[in-house]
Design goal:
mainly alpha; 128 residues; 4 helices
């Protein structure tokens, strides 16, 4: 049993798996951030653009920060990166809600498609 524990500890102390995992997480975070930027450009109205910017970009930044935590060499760096991630988790949704609420209060209506605001068919063709 102690041989198994020793071999597991040797594997976990090896830095190569941390570098691979950190690199993959940083790559995934970068791809998510690029997807968020494309969403901001492609979506039709303010609210969908805000959603793309807040949710996907926050997730990409968090994934990137966790990847950087695996690549960090010292405990103080990991703690600082964790505090930055915690700050993003706490302030991202709050600021997105405040911006959306301010836009709605200012009179910016969401873009409405064929189905209307409540999802019911609003065309006059269906009435007989």
């Amino acid at each position: 049993m102690s041989e198994l524990l020793t071999s597991v500890l040797e594997i976990l102390s090896d830095a190569t798996w941390r570098h691979w995992l950190g690199g993959v997480l940083c790559l995934i975070g970068g791809v998510m951030t690029v997807i968020a930027a494309v969403g901001v450009i492609r979506f039709p109205d303010f609210y969908t653009r805000l959603h793309a910017a807040s949710v996907t970009d926050s997730l990409g930044a968090l994934t990137l920060l966790f990847g950087m935590m695996f690549l960090a060499t010292g405990f103080p760096v990991v703690v600082k990166l964790f505090l930055i991630a915690l700050f993003l988790v706490l302030t991202g949704p709050t600021s997105a809600h405040a911006i959306a609420n301010a836009a709605y209060t200012a009179g910016l209506e969401p873009l409405v498609g064929k189905l209307g605001r409540d999802g019911a068919n609003t065309s006059d063709e269906g009435e007989a």
